[in-house]
């Protein structure tokens, strides 16, 4: 899972993963470009993932990992590359639309300029022409020029309408791309990047308004053992279940995200520590109240519990410092028995 990989690559295991990736690239004679390094770190960090399985298949079949093959793998399995490709394609399409509109406008300007010259000539002719046939010919010329301009203006209007429709479609597509880039694929909650961005925004807003902001970090208890016992697919089922509870209670104006692996984070704008503690207890109770079953076999998996920690951010306090206090409160919950919520403000008060 991409979220797990990002978490691994931001922790102490990253150095071991990086060394293993370099060794594998050298063994398979793959140049250590930035793109290849990203591919192989994902391969090492998530050996059960779709990228690792496809890369393993290619290796087992003896296929040469050329630059083209690696680029295709990156485009198919690395979210950042897919996102960049989609943005580039949308940008190219938008450039084509703008170019077509620009051309249509220039043609319309030429046509209107020509029509203006025709009108000017007719105006001059009307003051000097007395012959009926010449007058009729002049009127016919004006009528034909008017009809031509009307046709061209209608064509321009249609082109502009079509372009407006296409630009709106591209805008909706880019908005979907943006949502995909900030959404965790497994849980449909916000991902780590979206959380970091929202945290910065929420902190700036709280500082401007002089309001409080409370942060929380939640983690599924004993998840590694559960994963080892039942497998990754069942583990994913558990993560989705916990995420559904967190997402419902963490609906806007609150903000909930999958922070990485089995860990989640939440932002509570303008809510104090006591209220947030109550919300986290509600999540904890609901998660623990349900007996889970394995979908494929209907086996009873028992119950899952979560631990949580929270910290109330002070006005002007760096976001990272507040998150570290929430994380510290989470580990207090872990050390003191799990399946509990720790209010970091009480720890501070006691100290």
UniProtKB/TrEMBL annotation:
Coiled-coil annotated spans: 139-180
Root EC class: transferase
Gene3D superfamilies the record matches: 3.30.70.270
Pfam family, one: GGDEF
Highest taxon, organism lineage: Bacteria
Record SMART domains: GGDEF
Domain GGDEF: 211-346
Assigned keywords, A-Z: Coiled coil
Protein name: diguanylate cyclase
Organism: Caulobacter ginsengisoli
């Amino acid at each position: 899972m991409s979220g797990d990989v990002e978490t691994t690559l931001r922790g102490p295991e990253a150095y071991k993963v990086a060394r293993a990736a370099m060794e594998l690239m050298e063994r398979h004679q793959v140049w250590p470009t930035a793109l290849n390094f990203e591919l192989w770190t994902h391969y090492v960090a998530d050996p059960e993932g779709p990228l690792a399985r496809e890369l393993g298949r290619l290796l087992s079949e003896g296929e040469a990992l050329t630059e083209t093959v690696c680029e295709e793998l990156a485009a198919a399995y690395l979210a950042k590359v897919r996102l960049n490709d989609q943005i580039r394609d949308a940008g190219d399409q938008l450039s084509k639309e703008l170019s077509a509109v620009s051309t249509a406008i220039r043609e319309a300007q030429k046509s209107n300029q020509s029509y203006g010259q025709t009108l000017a000539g007719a105006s001059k002719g009307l003051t000097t022409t007395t012959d009926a046939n010449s007058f009729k010919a002049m009127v016919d010329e004006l009528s034909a020029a008017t009809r031509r301009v009307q046709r061209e203006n209608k064509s321009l209007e249609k082109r502009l309408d079509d372009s407006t429709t296409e630009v709106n479609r591209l805008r909706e597509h880019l908005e979907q791309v943006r949502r995909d880039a900030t959404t965790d694929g497994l849980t449909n909650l916000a991902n780590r990047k979206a959380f970091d961005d929202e945290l910065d925004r929420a902190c700036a807003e709280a500082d401007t308004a002089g309001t409080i902001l409370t942060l929380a970090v939640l983690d599924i208890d004993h998840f590694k053992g559960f994963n080892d016992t039942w497998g990754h697919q069942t583990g994913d089922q558990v993560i989705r279940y916990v995420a559904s509870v967190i997402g419902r209670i963490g609906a806007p104006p609150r903000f909930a995200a999958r922070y990485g692996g089995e860990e989640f984070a939440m932002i509570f704008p303008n809510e104090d520590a006591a209220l947030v503690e109550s919300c986290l207890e509600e999540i904890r109770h609901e998660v623990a109240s349900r007996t889970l079953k394995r979908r494929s076999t209907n086996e009873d998996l028992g119950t899952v519990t979560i631990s949580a920690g929270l910290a109330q951010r002070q006005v002007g306090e760096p976001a990272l410092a507040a998150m570290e206090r929430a994380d510290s409160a989470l580990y207090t919950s872990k050390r003191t028995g799990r399946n509990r919520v720790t209010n970091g403000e009480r720890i501070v008060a006691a100290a």
